[in-house]
Hints:
With 129 residues, the chain is α+β, with helices and mostly antiparallel strands. The chain has one helix at 2-24; strands at residues 32-34, 39-43, 45-54, 60-69, 75-85, 90-96, 104-112, 123-128. Helix content is 18%, strand content 47%. Strands 1, 2, 3 and 6 form a four-stranded antiparallel beta sheet that branches. It has a four-stranded antiparallel beta sheet with strand order 5-4-7-8, with no helix packed on it.
Amino acid sequence: MRGVGWAALALLLVACCSQAAQASVVAGTGALTFTAPPKEVTIGEPGLLTTLHDNLGTSVFAIVIMVLRDNSGQMVYYSTATVNVTRGLYGDAFTVAVGLPVGAYNATVFAITPGGLPLSNSTTVLYSA
């Protein structure tokens, strides 16, 4: 009987705490905004440099994802970078694109939390390999 009581309490605390943690995550597509379209640069390797502005009253740790699609719209490559943007300031994320055949690609870039919640809208730019 005692073991069942402790197990029930443990389950209740886990459920309660996970809901509180989820509720405390501040996210939304306006949390981070692009200051300009991502631009092609080479920093050791070719890729896209994306500058994001933090619109929240707190610092934000984000995963920036770049998805490349060919002319038929098929995803052919993706890359990720992390950025920690101080509240009210700007942060740069560099997503690498190596080993691609020469050609033009549509690069869609967006930011999410480590838990997968959206932090920005997406933007699409032309990327040339």
